[in-house]
Specification:
This protein is an alpha/beta fold and 212 residues long. The chain has helices at 29-35, 47-63, 80-92, 108-114, 143-168, 172-178, 187-193, 203-211, and strands at 16-20, 23-27, 38-41, 69-75, 97-106, 121-123, 128-131, 183-186, 198-199. It is built from eight helices and nine strands.
């Protein structure tokens, strides 16, 4: 939960036209996922992406407060405060929020993965999860300013420890020890740690096993 990486080049997102009862409309994969109540967090966690995710969660709650929301995560993490905004919204909305990690859920994104509804937190087999202590950019200023910032960093760390302890079942003391350095977990290790509840099998493999 520190400085952001520079923007990377991205695959061009395809768009397509489909006919509806109201005429023709242009769409894209993200729109189609949203229609299925799937929120996709595939970028760094910052104020812009947090606002997008929160808006989707709040809309889906108003659309149907009793129907589950799925949130897919492939994110390197990012801003601690932006993460907290998404976290609070996940806890605030009435629908269960199923979280699924594909690729990675690192830093702030790992907290969001763990924040899903208990029993509905999942990861694909080759996913990785990374947790560590929050950090900030270089701090400059008067001694009094440095003291204020140091106290805020400690508050952030205490909050992170309490939040992870709440959702993993681990003690706050163990969390404190584990996040002193980067702790990287495989999907199976994330289950053991309590960040997710299960590793999802590949759909193709499951279908083949059912046919055999």
């Amino acid at each position: 939960m520190s400085s952001f990486q520079p923007l990377q080049s991205r695959y061009i997102l395809p768009s397509f036209v489909e006919r509806t009862a109201y005429g023709v409309k242009e769409s894209n994969p993200y729109n189609k996922l949203f229609e299925e109540r799937i929120v996709f967090l595939g970028v760094q966690v910052d104020d812009a992406s947090a606002n997008d995710v929160m808006a989707q969660l709040l809309f889906l709650e108003s659309d149907d407060p009793d129907r589950e929301i799925q949130m897919y995560i492939n994110s390197p993490g990012g801003s601690f405060t932006a993460m907290l905004a998404i976290y609070d919204t996940i806890q605030y909305v009435r629908p269960d929020v199923r979280t699924i990690c594909l690729g990675q859920a690192a830093s702030a994104a790992a907290v969001l993965l763990a924040a899903g509804t208990k029993g509905k937190r999942m990861a694909l087999p080759n996913s990785r999860v990374l947790i560590h202590q929050p950090s900030v950019e270089g701090i400059y200023g008067q001694v009094s300013d440095l003291e204020i910032q140091a106290a805020e960093v400690q508050r952030m760390r205490d909050l992170l420890e309490s939040t992870l302890a709440k959702h993993t079942g681990r003690s706050k003391e163990q969390i404190a020890t584990d996040i002193d350095r980067d702790k990287i977990l495989t999907a199976e290790q994330a289950v053991e740690y309590g960040i997710v509840d299960e590793v999802l099998p590949y759909r193709k493999l499951s279908a083949m096993q059912q046919q055999s």
